[in-house]
What does this fold into?
Amino acid sequence: MIAKTLKGLRTMLTKTEFPDVAHFRQALQIPEPTAGLLEAEVSQQKAAADLASASARLKAAEQEVAYAKDIGRPSKVSAAEVRALGVEVERFSRLEAKAQEALSRLRADRRTAVQTEMADAVEEFAEVLKRKVAELDTLFALGASVGDSYHRSGHLKTPQIFTVSPLMRNFMRPLREAMARVR
It folds into this structure.
């Protein structure tokens, strides 16, 4: 009976055709970002750096004014210079916000495009994994059953693969549960 079950399982596994790993390596390649997205990232980084630099200059000027006031001497920085730096910070803040908004929009567009473009390959990959996990589970269950048959016979030495099959099946429980949640 066990030999017949093993033969049936072997037949099932050899008839099941799965795409190979090379197929998935190619099908699951994430497309490179567009030149527009890369340019937007550079623009946003530059705008953020300009804002940080202007903010640092404003803070230094404000500290100089406060320090000069505390020690009772005239400041090296005029009130007009501080106001001008404040205006500059506001301008760079608006530029950085615009650059960030443009970058976020391009990233969202790319995310949607990549998900759409790769949806079939991702679904196929998930299905193959689910089937492989189910096959392994079936094989380990069979191994555990064969091991029980050896054990019940009493006088036969159980091959090691059949003694570890129940353990391997238990190790696979979290994998089976995780794969059941995959959509």
